[in-house]
Amino acid sequence: MPVPSSPASAPVGGGRQARWQPHNDQRRERIVAAVIELLEEGPAGAEVAMQSITERAGLSKSVVYRQFSGRDELDRRTRTTICEQFTDTLDTALDVTDGSIHRILHRSIGAVVDWIDRHPRLHEFLRRGPAVGDPDETNAMSSLQTSIAARTRRLVSGLAGVVGVVDEPVVDTMTFAIVSMTEATVTRWAHDPAPALDRDRLVAELANYAWSVLDGVARAHRLALDPDQPLLALLERLAVPDP
């Protein structure tokens, strides 16, 4: 008759793995941070050598390969981290509690312009392959656009719900159109060695284009938006039905 295993002894392996998990997470973060630093420092489009990564991270190749199954997984994880940094920056700019529609649009588009302008090599790296769990195997930038549009769509849908107007297909199309237009235009501007517009003029123009789309959709739903009124005050006004 087999002797039942002790409940206390069953999770020994799992417990050991759990104890090492924070240490392994820290190592992965060091490795990814090393890749990002080297991408920022190197020439545009250059491949970062594994030897350089291990030296920058202060780890041996064997340690790096224990943390990642190969270079593809490391590159995917790096793109995921870059995408998270990008969206964290944008989430702060999209704070609807601070400012009018115009201010929020200017701040958000300005954040996109500044990130792409300051991190051209990271932006280019996103276009060279997918991120972790990326349904678009072509490049991470396409999925990032979709992710940003989804975050913006949830925000706009929530605001529209306050005044009783939610047309999900229209909101989805509108937000993706604004996000993709902004990213494509900023990318073109950032790659132009002699752009016709300076940074502030570019932000102002793109914010005006975004406002035109938003205003047009609002008018189609019989909503009059004041782009210069604090957004929360505007929503409070719109949420009260006219007598």
TrEMBL record:
Keywords: DNA-binding. The keyword Iron does not apply. PROSITE patterns: HTH_TETR_2. Residues 25-86 form the HTH tetR-type domain. It comes from the Bacteria. Residues 1-11 have a biased composition (Low complexity). Residues 49-68 bind DNA. InterPro entries: Homeodomain-like_sf, HTH-type_TetR-like_transc_reg, HTH_TetR, Tet_transcr_reg_TetR-rel_C_sf. Gene3D superfamilies: Tetracycline Repressor, domain 2 (1.10.357.10). It comes from Nocardia aurea. This is TetR/AcrR family transcriptional regulator. Residues 1-25 are annotated as: Disordered.
